[in-house]
Design goal:
The protein has 144 residues and is mostly helical. The chain has helices at 3-42, 46-60, 63-84, 87-114, 128-138. Helix 1 packs across helix 5 and helix 3 (63-84) runs antiparallel to helix 4 (87-114). The longest helix is centred in the first third of the chain and has 40 residues, at 3-42. The chain is elongated and about 90 Å long. The two termini are 42 Å apart.
Length: 144
Amino acid sequence: MSSDEERRRKEKVEAKVQAMLAADARNRELANEAAMEAAAAMRVDPEAELRRRRQERLRRHPWVPAGVLVTAGILAAGLMQFRAGNREASNRFMRYRIMAQGITLGLAMLSLAATPTVDPVTTPLVPMEAVQSTDAQEGVSSRY
């Protein structure tokens, strides 16, 4: 193969790659636009969504906040004993605090292990119907 033929072949391949990259970027851009439109159509109040997520977390993992509060209480009691000059009691409370931290961490791990997971790659942020209907209107092939 001559160098001119090889150069032309490389240019053709490079042009095809550039065209594919441009098409992929345009598809991603359209998908992002569709996601933004769907999110706007749902009119989600960010503060209400944050409250809902906190309540859901508390419902799924109720022992974790309780463990944190118990650990903080033991720490406060230990610091009060330290300030009062009672070193033995302060040391005992610090040991209890370490045990409470370990129990809280164990409860957090158990509750996370018991919670069903959602794959962020395959789970869309917006309803698929919204993305697919926008794709159909735009004439874009959907990858979902």
